[in-house]
Task: inverse folding
């Protein structure tokens, strides 16, 4: 069962698109004012607002087009569905750091 019902999803999408368009319009106004006044700080503000619009649009696209929408409360899955166990992964910092001081303490490299 989806977290948000279909009619509400459409409304949320439209509001998000309007927010992105509004942010881009505001950024363009800031940049035009910066160009007219020869003020660099307004140009930076316009770039920051435009970056916020891009971030919001990216999050919106990732969220609304994901193949599997996760519930808002979090993902509760059993360990059998987990797939790969992280216990099988050997991380570089799991070994002792003595290898950095003396090469004799380093584990031998696997031969191919």
Result:
């Amino acid at each position: 069962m989806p977290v948000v019902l279909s009619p509400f999803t459409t409304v949320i999408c439209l509001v998000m698109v309007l927010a992105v368009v509004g942010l881009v319009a505001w950024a363009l106004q800031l940049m035009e004012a910066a160009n007219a006044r020869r003020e660099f700080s307004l140009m930076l503000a316009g770039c920051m607002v435009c970056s916020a619009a891009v971030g919001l649009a990216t999050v919106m696209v990732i969220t609304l087009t994901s193949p599997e929408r996760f519930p808002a409360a979090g993902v509760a899955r059993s360990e059998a569905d987990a797939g790969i166990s992280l216990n099988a992964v050997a991380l570089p910092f799991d070994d002792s750091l003595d290898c950095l001081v003396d090469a004799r303490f380093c584990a031998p490299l696997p031969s191919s």
Observations:
- The CA atoms of residues 92 and 99 lie 11 Å apart.
- The mean pLDDT is 77.
